[in-house]
Amino acid sequence: MNKQPRVVILGSGPAGLTAAIYLARAGLKPVLYEGTQPGGQLTLTTEVENFPGFVNGIQGGDLMDNTRAQAERFGTEFSWAEIVSTDLSERPFKLHTSEGKDILADVLVIATGATARWLGLESEKRLQGRGVSACATCDGFFFRDLEVAVVGGGDSAIEEATFLTRFASKVTLIHRRDEFRASKVMQARAFKNEKIEILFNKGVEEVLGTDAVTGLRLRDTVTGEESVLKVDGLFLGIGHTPNTAIFGDQLAKDGTGYLITTPGSTHTSIPGVFAAGDVQDSIYRQAITAAGSGCMAALDAEKWLESLEEG
Ligand code: NAP
User: What is the CATH number of the domain that holds 64?
Assistant: First the structure.
């Protein structure tokens, strides 16, 4: 390919921005589409304590602002245009925007991340923003001296519950089994926090309240017994769904919708399309692993472009 290839990155979390740094430093002038949540999930978190290089931790938003500035410094172009669908059937790939424009890409790095999951209850939907939330960092502040519940048994749920104890007078952690999935360190944090009460073997059947949350109707997952828990807020911490809707069925996915990449690389099922970060990672889902795979995607994309030139 003699002319400058059109290199497009979708997503502005650690994976997309790291891919941008590498591709920009390689002189490939990437254009990065930031998506609906610039900075990705880390902007919804507070302190990040496990990203190497920050002895005393760093705020998630600051980490992303710095990484974005770093990508910009080397010549990444940023766009806020919203991509609503894609045609990957031939190259250049076509990305359709919400304004009816077509963006062409010779190489595509998908780093669209994942979005929080909901229980799927009608009452949960009705009371969203009125006491039901999937983001403790965003909404925890509103529950000062109130009682809240968090659903889930993984690291996210415990992280949310622990964070919420900064504001709430009491946090009830509700899990559907009698064993957490979360790491031992996180579990210990929940067990020793006096503001956290743990309810095992309970499922949320209904969020109670008309204009605001007043409680939860729970069902014991072993005995089937019903109970009511009085709370002012409900936070979901039950995992995430990969953001792949704009690709339809064009790319190979696993049973839960995560993009499949060739083991040890970021190649997807379509040559020239690479995937990095949470959109293709149902296991690690860490900022550092996302950044690492963003780097891999950039290097894979560079090599792939070189192979076109040679071929
Ligand atoms: P996760 O590990 O998949 O855990 C989801 C939890 O929600 C599970 O306990 C699951 O129950 C429960 N759940 C799922 N659907 C449910 C439903 N419909 N009703 C009730 N409960 C439901 O997700 P995650 O906690 O978001 O963590 C994802 C990854 O990110 C993990 O690898 C985790 O280690 C990582 N992470 C790390 C940190 C950190 O290190 N600071 C923070 C957050 C996340 P079951 O256990 O019964 O399946």
Answer: 3.50.50.60
